[in-house]
Structures are given as structure tokens and as C-alpha cells.
Amino acid sequence: xxxxxxxxxxxxxxxxxxxxxxxxxxxxxxxxxxxxxxxxxxxxxxxxxxxxxxxxxxxxxxxxxxxxxxxxxxxxxxxxxxxxxxxxxxxxxxxxxxxxxxx
Length: 103
Prior knowledge:
The chain is of the alpha+beta class. The chain is about 10% helix and about 30% strand.
């Protein structure tokens, strides 16, 4: 992945896989993971199907769309949609059953 060196990038750790990748603020978490060879669950890539749903354990994100396919309660509980989420800090995200995916 080639990014502008002046562009902020954050480190994202994926648990329980233990993989990490850099996420510049110009890419969604899903896009950034793909550029670095980290395979995450995906389907629609527009925030509606919820295939990529995971928990944000540390850090903060913003969304590319006004209202992603999450309820207010899900957001409070820490659920995010990486296909439309952009890192605002270093992150730890967690998927159940992530062992099935590869780096």
C-alpha cells in the first residue's frame, strides 16, 4: 500500500487472530486490512449487510456514512462495521470465530 507519508495512519490489532495492520484515515478499516493482506469478513462493503460486524475493544472510529447499519444500543456496546469505519486512533478490534481467517 502506498500512502502519503503526511497522512495520519493508525495501528489496528485484530483479535483473537493477533494480526495487525496500518489504517490511514483515507481508507476504511476493511480496505486497509485488505491492502496489508489481513482477511476480514466482508460482503456488501457499504454498511448494510453486517457481515463485518465486530467489537471495538480500544480506540475510536468515525464513519464514512451518516448512519451505518447499527442501532444506537449496538454502538454503545462497542459494535462497529469496519467496511465503513475509519480509524481515529490506534485500535483493537475483536471478531468471534476469527481463527478461521488468515493473514
